[in-house]
């Protein structure tokens, strides 16, 4: 046998064979932490079942036994006993040990307690930080013994008898004397039917942190031999690890009390109060370069720089200004084979199962629209000193793990990034999350969690099963009625008796303010689907894994795009000619007192068309029209189309520079105008030839030309549906103009759909307001003319009043009336004008509030929402307003012969509910941008879902609703470059006397020399606890209580002054002044 450790010294008193001694100690520590009988020097910690939590426990044991500090990264890089023993040569001395110490008169809160106390004050008392656990007891428990046992546990652990009084806005820990600490045990007689509601009611009990012990219990008696025990603590006194200690001690105390004596526990070496003081001493001041806190803060400041304020998750509802704590739960189970495969993947990449699941969740969120910068919170035990391993208290800390998915990495590469990120975070885990928020000072909002909104929790807490004499105990699940974050995933690996993987139980907890259950169920299914693909081939880019189910892919690519309809394969002149032949005497155009029949309009347009052909106009050429709103404008438009040329609209009021650019770019054959428009500023020289339509010479020339229909032999070339019908100019986000070239085919497809959808026929009158420089305006004339209706030109220079007058005077159906939501609001009060006749209102432009649409719908109008871009020929998506439930009317579905796709940055379909960029394909696509092949290729891209087909990238962010309608979010360029919110405006000028006093209070609390009226409390270094101190001083000075929630909404002197009102006169302005 070898010498004992005590005898391994050479003659000089130096420990001989030092590495072997370390190996022996480390083998014992490995075995203790891993719960195995024996460990060899070549055994790997992670092959034996080690994971992140056990790694941290091992490091704590090494610190206590060997007195050296080991980084988590060191263990991951040296996972065997032999490797780690050699690595300890470079290890530094361990941190100071936690021991009992003298306490100040007023004991401060720990950083973790401080944050929960603040949240309690900010949002008001709430059950959201309750920790309830329930068990079904078969047998007859000794209630007296149970009550005594609970009291024993509370006396043993000071954290369970600590309350938080407040003096001058500052809370402190007050430990209730052990003899006086009597936790409540409430016995309730009930039955199985009412038990669930009673459990829910008990779990939502609200603790008063200032006066009540943070622990209590209920015993529900269902029958003499059947009970349910609910034990609940507040999170300020307990954490997941602590619950295992609490029930263990409770069981031991119960056994002792049923035996007629008190539990014979040894004295705990330290209490939570000692930890609080040790924590502050250990971390020091972040301003001290030598302090542990300083080094770790430097890491976090760098690691979390430019962190996104909020993840773009697939929410079902907008985030409320004041969220509730209502939560839901969805369970997902990964089978034993997948569990085994994931564990194998972790070993192959020298990571842990948690890291693999972290990478999987980050990849899922990224594929579901969250971007490539994914911050996820995760709890760590926070018990870095051995002295607290058997102590109940709130030690858990929260780390922010930032996943980088930029560049579409392979899953293996992502896992390597995650490994580095997680190891670095574990090595810097001592900075309390609450302190980190104060230092980083992120944009604050009462509606969301700071720094992250998604939590990933490795749920290894062993609080479910315990034993009491004479009782059979089974855990009873409680519904997740509350939630702290937008989305949390709890994962619990399960193992068979031999230690082999038996599956992973996952629980998604979600905020019901934001998500429907079905959305979270879909997320859970997508996570399972993605992980199965990952284990099959981790070398694939994350973007290649399929997150859609087969039926989903079929639905969004095909079923919701099943829009094929037959439309005439003709040109616009042919269709108009047919209509004019059918109804020659019907009224085609009305403008004031002037009217044109279809025959008259056709005749005059044919005459002008022949004149234009004689001037060189024809297919693949353009003719500019710069005419005021009137019947001549309609004649000219039809004439250009009949000549085969493309219509180039020019607004007579357009700046001369813009018109000159259009003429240079489009090179029109001729400009049709009148004397008034010419005088208004068309280019005087160097431009195309000008035809003054109302000049005597032009009128004489036209009268000598036949008014019969033109044929292709008369045109410069045969006219086909693929030829340009018009060119309209639009600008990109940088303001660069380009001419969008739209074909006859696209216009005819839209008009065929619109005439059927809006029921435009020979009885319809369609009002057209001034302005003909867009495709929408052009279609407002062509749509009724191709369907036999009447175009009614509304006079220039007027708003909504003549339109309502037109509605009053219309004898028959009115369809369509094209408006913007702002027009509807301007016409409020006239909704009943649509009651006496069919009135179809088509709303485009900005989003349409449901309330506005509902008012007009109730008034008798038929309301349609239409979305489109010039590049897609007027309208491509539409929706008829019905019984809408959302705040805004959805965009709708694709029109005839149109397909729409919601894609991510790599042109992959995103799942329903996930925002992506809208792409449009089909008959309505424009040719492109006139003379700009590069820009055309950039915006009109190859469609991956159709052979030889193009699609247009709109730049709009949308998502599919579950019913197959599209929902609009905004434009990508606006959403990716948001302007910072400057908050409420602050009045300029000299501060009032009351504002001066407030500035003094701000400066006093913040420890600064000067504060301005518009300065933000947090920008000047304020944090949550100081905010409470400031409000206490304001109450003391002014006699008015302000809520923390109101203060957080705008924490400036000027805003606080507004909330206070004029205290000298008793006037109150804001709701905070009444304590609301």
From TrEMBL:
Top-level taxon: Bacteria
**Entry coiled-coil feature ranges:** none
Q: Which UniProt keywords apply?
A: Phosphopantetheine, Phosphoprotein
- The name this protein goes by in its record: Carrier domain-containing protein
PANTHER family named among the record's database cross-references: FATTY ACID SYNTHASE (PTHR45527:SF1), NONRIBOSOMAL PEPTIDE SYNTHETASE (PTHR45527)
GO BP, one annotated term: secondary metabolite biosynthetic process
Q: Where is the Carrier domain?
A: 17-92, 989-1064
Q: Which InterPro entries match?
A: AB_hydrolase_fold (IPR029058), ACP-like_sf (IPR036736), AMP-dep_synth/lig_dom (IPR000873), CAT-like_dom_sf (IPR023213), Condensation_dom (IPR001242), PKS_PP-bd (IPR020806), PP-bd_ACP (IPR009081)
The Gene Ontology terms for molecular function here are: catalytic activity; phosphopantetheine binding
Segments spanning the bilayer are none
Name the cofactor(s): pantetheine 4'-phosphate
CDD domains tied to this protein: LCL_NRPS-like
A single Gene Ontology CC annotation of this entry is: cytoplasm
Name its species: Micromonospora inaquosa
As given in the record, the signal peptide range reads none
